[in-house]
Amino acid sequence: ANPCASGRYDHTQYLALNLLGKRMKYSVNLAGAGCGCNAALYLTSMQQNPHKSECSDYYCDANNVCGESCAEIDIMEANNHAFQATPHKCDAPSQGNYFTNCDRGGCAQNTRDQGNAFGPGDNFKIDTRKAFDVLTSFPTRDGKLVAMRTVLAQGSNEVVLDHASCAADYLAQLTDALAHGMSLIFSYWGSDSQTMGWMDMPPCGPEAC
Predict the structure, then answer these.
(1) Residue 36 near residue 45 (C-beta atoms within 8 A)
(2) Which of 112, 104, 50 has the alpha carbon at shortest distance from 81?
(3) What element of type H or E holds 171?
């Protein structure tokens, strides 16, 4: 089946959120998203991408999934066993293209690296059988992005992903993308453990979505 949706697209009509120096908060319930599944909420520079992608909808991301690359910030890639947040920097635009070289792997941080932080059960700080809040902030200094901080909260419990391992110049390279505005995208997809193990293995095993 053709995964593209027919229609006429204009990249200038996409919503572009300027979150530089700001924060966003939402609530999510991942109880039904098991191992191998990925409920993703992320930002990309779609409005600033003037080049049509494979589906002619101007979609772009750091992994060049549809043939066009651009800056990407993964606010959430998650299921009920793991939660990952990842900024992806790109080199400055050149030769008429918006972005030509992006860091596909990004500077990721995952709850699975913190013991008993996130999962289905009373023994986890964030019990994914229930809804929880997510607060993501993009602090600045002298107009430059200096951090990305994600706080998962449920009642009095909190789990923090502070991206302290991300170099200052790495995050600074996302300043312009955030300042120009990035489009908010939600997707839900999944596969087998060989494909999704980067996100949830362990604690997940051979399960498929």
Answers:
(1) no
(2) 112
(3) helix 168-172
d(CA 152, CA 160): 6
pLDDT per residue as tens digits for the range 180-207 = 999 999 999 988 878 888 999 999 988 8
Cβ proximity of 140 and 101 under 8 Å: no
pTM of the model: 0.92
pLDDT class of 7 with cuts at 50, 70, 90? confident
> How far, in whole angstroms, is CA 190 from its chain's centroid?
15
Q: Classify the phi-psi angles of 78: left when phi > 0, otherwise alpha if psi is within -120 to 50, otherwise beta.
A: beta
Active site residues: 72, 77
Sign for the pseudo-dihedral over CA of 77, 89, 117, 159: negative
pLDDT at 84: 97
